[in-house]
Amino acid sequence: MSKISMKTPLVEMDGDEMTRILWSMIKDELLTPYIDLKTEYYDLGLKHRNETDDKVTVEAAEKTKELGVAVKCATITPNAARVKEYDLKEMWKSPNGTIRSILDGTVFRTPILVKGIEPCVRNWEKPITLARHAYGDVYKNVEIKVPGPGKGYLVFEDEKGNEVRELIQDFKSPGILQGIHNLDKSIDSFAHSCFNYALDSKQDLWFATKDTISKKYDHNFKDIFTEVFEKEYKDKFEEAGITYFYTLIDDAVARIMKSRGGMIWACKNYDGDVMSDMVSSAFGSLAMMTSVLVSPDGNYEYEAAHGTVQRHYYKHLKGEETSTNSVATIFAWTGALRKRGELDGIKELSEFADLLEKATVSTIESGRMTKDLALITSMSNVKVQNSADFIKEIRNTLENR
Ligand code: NAP
Ligand code: MG
Fold first, then answer.
1. Whole-model pTM?
2. Over the stretch 356-397, which tens digit does the pLDDT of each residue have?
3. Ligand 2 is a single-atom ion; what residues have CB below 5 A from it?
């Protein structure tokens, strides 16, 4: 059988530790035997980031803007311990943060559903995709600890020096103050990413804020979403048979719990941070989750939602067997290959991605899985596999199809 050929290369961002080991196993066992894999390779492993003064991360992100689709392995975000461990020149920033700020996008995370691993919420029949705005709010805040009596103000000074001033609180005793911001441009691109993703995946879009209380800040999010929807997406949504629905965040939470799933839930930065951990753990595991960064001008970066699984890596280095779940990393590759197939009009490539995903899911459903899943499955007669054997089992399933 001849291999599937590609037209445009994928931007391939290699990473660290256990996921780097899985990365090459996946390529060797599940991809290169079937695809004439074309990639522009960037080594985002911490050692190479350090050698290039982290320029490699910027170059990989810039290349993604040029080629449109990237696949990324999990990477270490250095902390003090890592600076020592890798003898780093400095504490390089989070690669995901760097890539996000260059591509300017929204992160969409969807659980991968498998029979035998049931969500804790019984009525969730379909996956819930969380779309998290990744700019501003409390993540870029300014805070003051108020020591005692005095007045706290919110002040804006325009370029000419004109001032708008609002009294926040006339303090009679010690307290705290916080200033946050967001940008219309960022909210606008968040809205476009969400509407486009809903159209792409043919799912309803929900968005929620606390606009009844925050009449300017949160209301601005609501207004921008409404404006963008009315102007550019209303007709397209009607055509696709999907809806856009806005409600209050507390109402959304209540409705989500009672829903059957199957929607995209767009959240402001903090709500998205909290709710994505709730949704993912209720569905099972971070290793059973797809994650894609979608930029407003149509660039896609696929990755696994979990980290580099450091504890397993140290076991691996000691020559011990590991049972690390490679599903999220496999789905990062299939997501990227499917999108590349769609953009380049290569049907076989997208079909291969579908097939590999199905083979992965049915391998688990046949009872062969990694330890993390064996611990939470409702199946009996489970065969726990090590990292390499699990990938080989998926290859067997694929071959049999
Ligand atoms: P982690 O790598 O996600 O692992 C935390 C724990 O979750 C693991 O020790 C393991 O539990 C379990 N786990 C996660 N993924 C798994 C998988 N695929 N298969 C089986 N078990 C899995 O998080 P971390 O240990 O906090 O972080 C390690 C490094 O990853 C850090 O340097 C961090 O900066 C980086 N990180 C990168 C990304 C990214 O690039 N997207 C995201 C998060 C963290 P057990 O040990 O109990 O088996
Ligand atoms: Mg979080």
1. 0.90
2. 999 999 999 999 999 999 999 999 989 999 999 999 999 999
3. 273
